[in-house]
Amino acid sequence: MLFRRRHGMSAAAGEALARVLATPTFEVIPLRHATDDASSLPLGARVSVTASPLKGIEATVGLCAQLQAAGFQAVPHLSARMVRDRAHLTDLLAELEDAGVHHAFVVGGDAKTHGSYADGLSLLREMADIGHKIGHIGIPCYPQGHPFIADEVLLQALHEKAAYASYMTSQLCFDPLAIGSWLAARRAEGISLPVHIGLPGVTEPHRLLAITARIGVVDTHRFLTKNIRFVARLVRSGGFYRPDALLEALAPQIADPRSGIVALHLYTFNAVKATETWRRRYLAGLASNRLDPSATEARPTAGGAIS
Asked: Could you tell me what percent of the chain has a pLDDT over 70?
C-alpha cells in the first residue's frame, strides 16, 4: 500500500520528511510486553520509555536496561518527582551507566512530590552536580501550553533547563501553525536547542482503551488529561488515527533549517508494530514519489488522517 501525499509538497519538503522519518524516537509505556513490542523496530532505534507513578521509576530504568541489551538506544524518562533523593538519583544514574544507556529525557512528572526534586530543573542541576555519562539529554516543550502550569513559568523553566539539555521534544500538538509560531518565538528569544517534534503514531481506539485500562486509575487520568485532543479525535472517528496530514502540514517547517527540527518523536501508545509499518510504508511512498490509488478521496485535515 502506498500512502497518499499532500498535493503540491515540494521536493525539499519530501526530503525533509524522509530525513526525520529515517531515525525517529519511538515512545512506549513500561508495560509487560513492551520489549516484545519493540522487536518490530530496526536494531539501533531510539526507544523512549515513560515513567509511571504506579509502577515506579525502577520499572522505567529496568525496561531501558532490557532494551539497551537487545540492541536499541534506550531513552529513560527521569521523572523528578519520582526520585527520592540524591542517593536514589546516584543509584539510578549508576544503573543506567552499567546498562550502557547514554540517553535520558528529564521531566518534572505528574506524581505527587515525595522527594527532593519538585521539577525537572532541580533534577538536572543535581545530575550535573553528581556527574554522569549521559551524553544526550532531552527536555519537554509545550507549543500549546500545559494544563497545570502557567505559560510564563514554562518559558522561564525552558530557558533555565536549556543549559543542561541536548534537545527539546514537543508534547502532542495538532496545530502546525501553533508549533511554528511557538518555535519562531523561542528562536527569537535565543533558545537554539534542536527540536524533536512529537507526533502520534498509528493508533486504534480499542488499543488506546486497553492501554489506559492497564496503567491504573491515577495514570489513566493523567494520560487522558495530557492527551485530551488526541483521545477526542479517536472517539469521534470510530476508526484509527494516522499522522500523514499533520506530518505533511509540518513539512515546510521541518525543511526550514531556521526551525531547528531535527527528528520526530512518535508517541506509539505501545502500538509499536502498527506505527513502524506506517513509517516504512510512508518512507517507501516518499522514495517512489507515487500517490496512493485512493488519493481521489477527500483530503484529511491537518490534524491527521482518520479512516
From this structure: 79
